[in-house]
Every structure is written in C-alpha cells, then in structure tokens.
Amino acid sequence: MKTPYDTALRVTDRQLDQVRAAIGQAIDELQRVELAQREIDAAMRRESVASGSDHRMLTEHFFVRARADRQRLRERRALAHAQLEELRRQAVDCYGSRTAIENAAGTFREEAVRLEANAEQMANDDRVGARAGRFRRTSPRP
Questions:
Q1: CA–CA separation, 52 vs 54, rounded Å?
Q2: Cα(90)–Cα(96) distance, integer angstroms
Q3: How many CB atoms lie within 10 A of CB 109?
C-alpha cells in the first residue's frame, strides 16, 4: 500500500547509501594513511641500520624528511578519523530519520486498514438494518 511517506523513505534511503559510501571511502583513506605510516617507519628503521654500519653515510636529511612525512600523515589520520566520526554521526541520524518515517508509514497503513474495516462493518450493519426494516414492513401485524 502506498503511503504519503514513501517519497521521504526513498530520500532517506538515498542519503543513507551516500553516507555508507562516504564511510567506506573514509575507512579506505585511514587504511592508506596507516599503511604509509608503517612504510615510513620501516624505511626509517632500514636507514638507521644502514647508517649505523657506515659512518660516512649522511642520513640527517632523510630523517628530517621522514619525520615531517610522519607528522603530515598523523595530521591526515586525525582529519580522516574526524571525518569518519562525523559520517558515523550522520549515519545514526539517517537511520533515526528512516526509522521514524517507517513508523509513521506503518501507523498510516494500520489506520487505513482500521478505517476500511470500520467502513465494512458500517456497511454490514446498514444491510442488516435494512433487511430487518423490510422484514417488519412485510410481516403481518397482529
């Protein structure tokens, strides 16, 4: 049964799909940042071992750049995490709105069924009343 809430339900479904997709992208970004952080940490360990065995090797610039990259990745991670939390909050809001609209649509359907049942009962009562009236008119009076 169609309800006046069907359009709103479709809109909230689309919003929810968009938020889900955005959450997936935010999670992917977090994973990329964490992978890049692990790669930088591994490169720093390798470079540290290599420079420890050869005292002629100058690695100061590498470590300065690597530390700057790690800081930049920490900032990207914090931003991605904040965006993910905001998207999760939006998802909760969308789910809440969707649930409220679904409840309203369910109430509308129940009310329509109740009104239809009442109309049927009234029609049956009218038929029974009319039949009883005809029976009284056609029966002989004492």
A1: 6
A2: 10
A3: 14
> What residue type is assigned to position 14 of the chain?
R
How many residues does the structure list for the chain?
A: 142
> What single-letter DSSP state applies at residue 59?
-
**How far is the C-alpha of 22 from the C-alpha of 77, rounded, in Å?**
16
pLDDT of residue 135: 66
Domain map (residue ranges) of the chain: 6-138
Please say whether the beta carbons of 127 and 38 come within 8 A. no
Is the pTM of the predicted complex or chain greater than 0.85?
Answer: no
Instruction: Give the mean pLDDT per block of 10 residues along the chain (142 residues).
Output: 91 95 96 94 85 69 87 94 96 95 94 94 86 67 58
Which has the closest alpha carbon to 87: 73, 9, 79, 8?
79
Among the listed residues 61, 70, 13, the one whose alpha carbon sits nearest the alpha carbon of residue 38:
70
